[in-house]
Specification:
Strand content: under 5%
Keywords: Activator, DNA-binding, Nucleus, Repressor, Transcription, Transcription regulation, Wnt signaling pathway
Number of domains: 2
Strand order of the largest sheet: 1-2
Number of strands: 4
GO molecular function: DNA-binding transcription factor activity, RNA polymerase II-specific; RNA polymerase II cis-regulatory region sequence-specific DNA binding
Subcellular location: Nucleus
Helix content: 25-40%
Pfam family, one: CTNNB1_binding
Protein name: HMG box domain-containing protein
Largest sheet: 2 strands, antiparallel
Order of helices and strands: HHHHHHEHHEHHHHHEE
Number of helices: 13
Length: about 450
DNA sequence: CACCCTTTGAAGCTC
DNA sequence: GAGCTTCAAAGGGTG
């Protein structure tokens, strides 16, 4: 996959992918068809960034720094408070949530794809395994994007719902002083009709009263119906109890185990505030169930490969939607935890194969070293780890993207083309998985409908 | 049972 | 500032 710089921009995430459209001379009909051009999207993302940084205040960055200063001392208290809440709630029923109680209100324009350019509504994706206990009352729905899902009043998705402002989220789960309350109208959720929050969209999930259950399509049934649901326990979804395994998603189920509660009581630790989900993660959460159903796959690695391809197959508008969602998530996360830093979670996961790969002969190291090793042009050829090492190490040559490792694991001394000569995955039709991938996605799993790729 | 795999994006770190 | 690393979700697979 080419990583050539287009000088255009940084944006829309898979910048390199978009760049490759041009560099490889491939026709991206979608781009031509869509009102969004590559530049448009770059502008969009740029605007999103700008908006998030500037729209909420004259100088959001400065504000945040100020908030951090203000709350720096609060952080410890805040976490202590979280601990206190945790203990208070069933003595260990402090649930882990992997997302915020955002709403995934149905998008009137995204039944399965296209987005109405005129629509500015954005669905919030967050659901699933670490979910709000109250969502157990909600029927699971996988049709997040259905125009008018049965569980949601039609007018709600169209008009949006004003959240009662009298309820303060901080009263339902620990918030830094003024965290949400300080959200200026310009960035507050209430003020964003583009975010069709329902009455239970943001705050009410944390209300002591049962929320309207009609607006949690993002939450999966697996947890909604999970055992041990606390009827009122309402920590923020990004807060994960300091269980022994931070990187697992079934915090909820695990944390309701008595022995873990006992352990936690013995060793109270600070809850972990997880990173807000990025656009792709939101997309994965949204589409995972669909892929699983379509492809009858269970392995997440394989599913993620498919989702990665589908992600690149999305139109600009579709991707923009998720970037917008991600921006909202970050924005809210920033508001809720102004002193939080991604650094806080560094080291939570084990250092793993990356260290193993340190001496790997298949890993050329930096792109510069890679180019040198394979005799590629340092200025124009893309080479090297595609922004992450792991096993996803692809090399570009002649517009092809492939792996430096052969199927038997032996190192490859030079870049190779894809087996089928297919273009990079972002434009690829259904094709065989990368030879480097240990996962062999059963492409024929679904049949000839081409869904599973 | 801890970790791997696999994906993209954001953010932090290093040089 | 470029390049690299870590983490976010997910759950079957692996040692």
């Amino acid at each position: 996959m080419p990583q050539l710089s287009s000088g255009g921009g940084d944006d829309l995430g898979a910048n390199d992918e978009m760049i490759s459209f041009k560099d490889e001379g491939e026709q991206d009909e979608k781009i031509q068809e869509n009102a969004f051009t590559e530049r448009d999207l770059a502008d969009l993302k740029s605007s999103l960034v700008n908006e998030s940084e500037t729209n909420q205040s004259p100088n959001a960055a400065a504000v945040r720094r100020e908030q951090q200063n203000e709350h720096r001392g609060y952080q410890e208290k805040h976490r202590e408070h979280l601990d206190g809440v945790s203990k208070h709630q069933d003595g260990g029923m402090y649930k882990a949530y992997t997302g915020y109680p955002f709403l995934m209100l149905p998008d009137p324009y995204i039944p399965n794809g296209s987005v109405s350019p005129s629509s500015n509504k954005v669905s919030v994706v967050q659901q699933s395994h670490g979910m709000h206990p109250l969502t157990s009352l909600l029927p699971y729905s996988n049709d997040h994007f259905n125009p008018s899902p049965p569980h949601l009043p039609t007018d709600m998705s169209q008009k949006g719902v004003q959240r009662p402002q009298s309820q303060d989220i901080s009263g339902f789960y620990p918030l830094p002083p003024g965290a949400v309350g300080q959200m200026p109208p310009s960035m507050g959720w209430q003020s964003q009709p583009v975010y069709p929050l329902s009455s239970c969209g943001f705050r009410q999930p944390y209300s002591s009263s049962l929320p309207n259950s009609s607006s949690y399509p993002r939450f999966s049934h697996s947890l909604m119906l999970g055992p041990g649901m606390h009827p009122t326990g309402i920590p923020h979804p990004a807060i994960v109890p300091p269980s022994g395994k931070q990187d697992h998603h079934d915090h909820y189920d695990r944390n309701i185990k008595p022995h873990q509660e006992t352990k936690r009581e013995k060793e109270p630790k600070k809850p972990v505030i997880k990173k807000p989900l990025n656009a792709f993660m939101l997309y994965m959460k949204e589409m995972r169930a669909k892929v699983i159903a379509e492809c009858t796959l269970k392995e997440s690695a394989a599913i993620n490969q498919i989702l990665g391809r589908r992600w690149h197959a999305l139109t600009r508008e579709e991707q923009a939607k998720y970037y917008e969602l991600a921006r909202k998530e970050r924005q809210l996360h920033m508001q809720l935890y102004p002193s939080w830093s991604a650094r806080d979670n560094y080291g939570k996961k084990k250092r793993r194969k990356r260290e193993k790969q340190q001496d790997s002969t298949t890993d050329p190291g930096s792109p510069k070293k890679c180019r040198a090793r394979f005799g590629l042009n340092q200025q124009t050829d893309w080479c090297g780890p595609c922004r992450r090492k792991k096993k996803c190490i692809r090399y570009l040559q002649g517009g092809r993207c492939s792996s430096p490792t052969s199927s038997d694991g032996s190192p490859i001394d030079s870049p190779v083309s894809l087996v089928d000569g297919a273009p990079p995955r972002h434009l690829s039709p259904p094709r065989s998985p990368s030879p480097a991938s240990p996962l062999h996605i059963p492409l024929n799993n679904k049949g000839a409908d081409g869904q599973c790729y």
